[in-house]
């Protein structure tokens, strides 16, 4: 993310991250806060233990996995490398992130920790935990949506996001 910002000559930006993108945002807020103006982290987790045990059995998640496999095969410049990519992604999700309470307390960037009230992947306790530890953070739980809120109810998701971005 920082390399992309550097290549585009963007010294500082508001970051909106979904799932692993939210984790990337938290990591940047911890290690490179000077690069962010704000952070909207949707569906992020602070530790692998925050992933629900039955995530792979959830219908929305299963459909997402099926859809991403199809899209990877159609859009990737290396469609025959899906298996290796999936294995690496699985190892990452099983072992990362590991944000400590002290690291979360160190975040000074204006932050909202956001999730859906029906997230099939992230334990609500972790969402609450992150929002409670980050100084001044807001916590927003969007109703009637899951980890895929931006697809399930884009109007609600975008309204919340634009509200966050419009605040000083």
Tell me the span between the first and last alpha carbons: 24 Å
Class computed from helices, strands and strand pairing: alpha/beta
How many domains? The number is 1
Beta strands, count: 4
In spatial order, strands of the major sheet run: 1-2-3-4
Mean residue pLDDT: 95
Number of helices: 8
What is the H level of CATH, i.e. the homologous superfamily?
Alpha/Beta hydrolase fold, catalytic domain
Which range does the strand content fall in? 5-15%
**Uncertain regions spanning at least 5 consecutive residues:** none
Return Rg in Å. 16 Å
- Return the CATH class: Alpha Beta
Biggest pleated sheet: 4 strands, parallel
Could you say which overall geometry the principal axes of the C-alpha atoms support?
globular
- The helix content, as a percent range, equals 40-55%
What does this 3D model show about the protein?
This protein is of the alpha/beta class. It has a single domain, classed as Rossmann fold, CATH 3.40.50.1820. Helix content is 48%, strand content 14%. The protein is built from 8 helices and 4 strands, in the order αβαβαααβαβαα. The protein has a 4-stranded parallel β-sheet, sandwiched between helices. Strand 1, helix 2 and strand 2 form a beta-alpha-beta unit.
Give a quick rundown of the structure.
This protein is of the alpha/beta class and 168 residues long. It contains 8 helices and 4 strands. It starts with a helix and ends with a helix.
List keywords for this structure.
4-stranded parallel β-sheet, 8 helices, Rossmann fold, 168 residues, 14% strand
């Amino acid at each position: 993310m920082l390399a992309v910002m550097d290549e585009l000559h963007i010294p500082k930006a508001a970051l909106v991250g979904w799932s692993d993108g939210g984790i990337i945002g938290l990591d940047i807020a911890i290690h490179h806060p000077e690069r962010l103006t704000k952070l909207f982290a949707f569906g992020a987790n602070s530790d692998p233990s925050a992933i629900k045990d039955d995530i792979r059995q959830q219908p929305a998640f299963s459909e997402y996995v099926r859809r991403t496999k199809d899209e990877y095969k159609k859009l990737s410049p290396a469609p025959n490398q899906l298996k290796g990519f999936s294995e690496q992604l699985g190892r990452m999700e099983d072992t990362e992130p590991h944000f400590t309470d002290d690291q979360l307390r160190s975040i000074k960037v204006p932050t909202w920790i956001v999730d859906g009230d029906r997230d099939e992947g992230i334990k609500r306790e972790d969402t609450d935990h992150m929002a409670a530890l980050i100084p001044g953070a807001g916590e927003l739980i969007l109703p009637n949506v899951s980890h895929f809120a931006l697809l399930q109810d884009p109007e609600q998701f975008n309204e919340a996001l634009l509200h966050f971005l419009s605040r000083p």
